[in-house]
Amino acid sequence: MESSSSQRVARIAAHLNPPNFELRREECRAKGGAPGFKVAILGAAGGIGQSLALLMKMNPLVSVLHLYDVVNSPGVTADISHMDTTAVVRGFLGQPQLEAALTGMDLVVIPAGVPRKPGMTRDDLFNINAGIVRTLCEGVAKCCPNAVVNLISNPVNSTVPIAAEVFKKAGTYNPKRLLGVTTLDVTRANTFVGEVLGLDPKMVDVPVVGGHAGVTILPLLSQVKPPCSFTPEETEYLTKRIQDGGTEVVQAKAGAGSATLSMAYAAAKFADACLRGLKGDAGVVECAFVASEVTELPFFASKVRLGRAGAEEVYQLGPLNEYERIGLEKAKKELAESIQKGTNFIKK
Ligand SMILES: NC(=O)c1ccc[n+]([C@@H]2O[C@H](COP(=O)([O-])OP(=O)(O)OC[C@H]3O[C@@H](n4cnc5c(N)ncnc54)[C@H](O)[C@@H]3O)[C@@H](O)[C@H]2O)c1
Ligand SMILES: O=C(O)C[C@H](O)C(=O)O
Fold it and tell me: What is the pLDDT of residue 7?
């Protein structure tokens, strides 16, 4: 009796010992157990990072989830790890653990960095976030050079060129695997257009091209699906609201940061699309800010087809109306400066 109860205690203790437990689960996967992708979130203890970690833990395509931050990642990891979903979660804290967090990853999602306060532009974040993105991307180049990178940290119009230069310097640059996340602009556009049309936003598809800041966010309302038309007043209202969506949230939060919940939703949606592409699913198409030949600029957001190689095809913009052509010229002017600023940050 006593020996069976102590055996039971030993059995339970063995199960409660997280490192052994994780090792056993991973050995099982290595032997052909649960398939799935290894995903790291850098900045996982932040406003976006925590909700994104929750959503990625729920994604059945994820087998291993690494949560890295310079603060509070152990607490977030302990919390998320109690969810009874498949992914094994591990936490990593601070620069000395960055390499362990990144080694072997298939997808790296980066929401690390400071958010805006009222009165700031995204470019005002450059001085702090540029250095953060550089350090994290140096880690990616060293530890998982073939990973797909989803870059969320602002200003995206500059941080994506920064990441590209870091990867070029390291000799690991693959333009198909570096994607700036603009999905939130699309979810906002679908929502606001759905409101105007009286449609469920799930039924609406608005391409949003250009970049991710102010006038560089260019919704193509002439290409909305299902096909529809807008009055000039509706076009003006919708374009402005989509371009100012981030500022609307920053002002409403009144100093407590920028969009985190809708962004985590958008980031999880985009990460899932990237994983479906990596898995080999056909017809996975999302907007993203990528290396591009669609305009004369080296980076531009447009629809891309996601596949095993990452952004396998970058789609042309299609026919634009006069309003959109004028918007495109404005967007390109601002984008050119932001891209150059990012590139110079590494090249200088
Ligand atoms: N692309 C988009 O559409 C979009 C949308 C919303 C927010 N953002 C941007 O995402 C970023 C994060 O926003 P948030 O609201 O989550 O901010 P936050 O301050 O709540 O969280 C940021 C996290 O990054 C961590 N961090 C800072 N330096 C780091 C480093 N060197 N390595 C790892 N982690 C580090 C912080 O500790 C913090 O936990 C901001 O730059 C914001 O502007 C982008
Ligand atoms: O607006 C911001 O600063 C955050 C983000 O880029 C957004 O669009 O919500």
Answer: 58
